[in-house]
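Bench log. Compound arrived from synthesis this morning; before running ITC I wanted a structural hypothesis for how S-adenosyl-L-homocysteine sits in the protein. Inputs:
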Amino acid sequence: MNQYFNELGIDLDDTMIKQFEIFYQLLIDENEKYNLTAITDLKDVYIKHFLDSVLIQKLDFSMNGKHVIDIGTGAGFPAIPLKIVNPDMRITGLDALNKRIGFIKMVQEKLNLKDIELIHGRAEDFGQMPKYREKYDFAVSRAVAELRLLLELVMPFVNINGYFIAYKSLKTKTELEDASYSLSEMKSKLIDIVEFKLPEDYGTRDMMIIQKMGNINKKYPRKPGTPKKSPL
Ligand code: SAH
């Protein structure tokens, strides 16, 4: 499976290879107890979850040594693969489902990963807390919500001048058009959209690079549920 990483120019050392193997096994074993992923075939997991998560490595900045948050991390995507390939990254994974957070805690232990904080909670609540607000160099998020809603959940965590990398595909253009008001309320601007091709016929991935330019009004994020009910 590691040839897929090599082909993209992402080098894995022996520790990383082993960590991905253990992560795969845990995902399959625990998936039988509770729903973590619909994808279980070895090759599918390696490409659609692991490789897709680390495509960020191909962008022009390094996350190693940086403080990163993954909003709606689920079973740990992209947080865990990113942490595996960036051992010096400090990463926070946040999700509203406690079972998924419990799973990642188990992964963290078995993979012996340091500098990971796992939070069971809603982005709307944590984005208002001084300990988490404007504390991250980068935020990432995959398969959580449409962009205009996602921005309200994510941007409060990001430092001024920090970046949000949104994992998108298919509806990237439409979502961007719908998000112009949200972008301005979140004092953010689109820097670039970088398109990647996954190997073989696994489709494409768009990385939207969004930068935070200034302070966001304290009323954001609104109460849990409100961003979804009336997205900006
Ligand atoms: N990022 C993962 C999981 C996507 S599923 C992946 O790509 O595989 C979406 C996840 O977002 C779910 O686990 C859900 O619990 C979480 N989520 C949705 N809205 C949220 C919110 N407002 N706060 C925290 N987590 C949220």
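What the model suggests: Strands lie at 67-71, 90-95, 116-120, 136-142, 158-168, 188-197, 204-212. Residues 72-74, 77, 94-97, 100, 122-124, 142-144, 153 surround S-adenosyl-L-homocysteine (CB under 6 Å).
ITC booked for Thursday regardless.
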